Amino acid sequence: MFAMIIGGSASGKSALAERWAVSLPQPRIYLAAMEVFDEESRRRIERHRALRAGKGFETVEAPTALWNADLPSDSTVLLEDLSNLLANELFSPSGGGSEAALRGVQSVRGRCENLILVTNEVFSGGADYAGETADYLAELAWLNRTLAAEADTVAEVVCGLPNVLKGALPW
């Protein structure tokens, strides 16, 4: 099963993804793509760890090159999130670009039983961007479209409420 959960910042997308993952068989892997750059990112990571506590997740950190992540073949993987993964693949010295982000997600999908992918909806802010930011957003849009076409279920979360765009939620 491959599900994609999309939403804006603090929309509830992570909570929905965790709820879904917990309803699926173990082992449960939280595949973390965020790199720690500053105190804000450290706080976000600690908040997510606290929210996952006691839910049976093993955390695997893989900011780039997801094909190298050690994942049990019978696992349920919650990948958080595509937006960070893409930024790392585009801007980190070890990154391989947007194609590497796509190949990484597809590699994870091929090596686990269930994949729940979290991604950000960043396209309705009403601002015009230029340069690297515009390029990043265009690449994220391409990745979101490409992976949504491959996913069994796609749900957008707004104000904590899921709107199923493709497939169905398990409850």
How would you concisely characterize the structure shown here?
With 171 residues, this protein is α/β, with parallel strands linked by helices. The chain has helices at residues 13-22, 39-52, 82-91, 98-111, 131-150; strands at residues 2-7, 28-32, 57-61, 76-80, 114-120, 153-158, 161-166.
Using brief descriptors, characterize the structure shown.
single chain, 171 residues, alpha/beta, seven-stranded mixed β-sheet, 7 strands
Helices, by number, come to 5
Give a quick account of the main beta sheet: strands, pairing sense, barrel closure: 7 strands, mixed
Calculate the terminal CA-CA distance, rounded to whole Å: 15 Å
Question: Would you count the extended β strands for me?
Answer: 7
Structural class: alpha/beta
Q: Beta-sheet strand percentage?
A: 15-25%
| Low-confidence parts | none
Mean pLDDT: 92
Please give the share of residues in helix: 25-40%
Rg (C-alpha, Å): 15 Å
**Per the principal axes of the C-alpha atoms, what is the gross shape?**
globular
Spatial strand sequence of the major β-sheet: 3-2-4-5-1-6-7
Topology order in helix (H) and strand (E) letters: EHEHEEHHEHEE
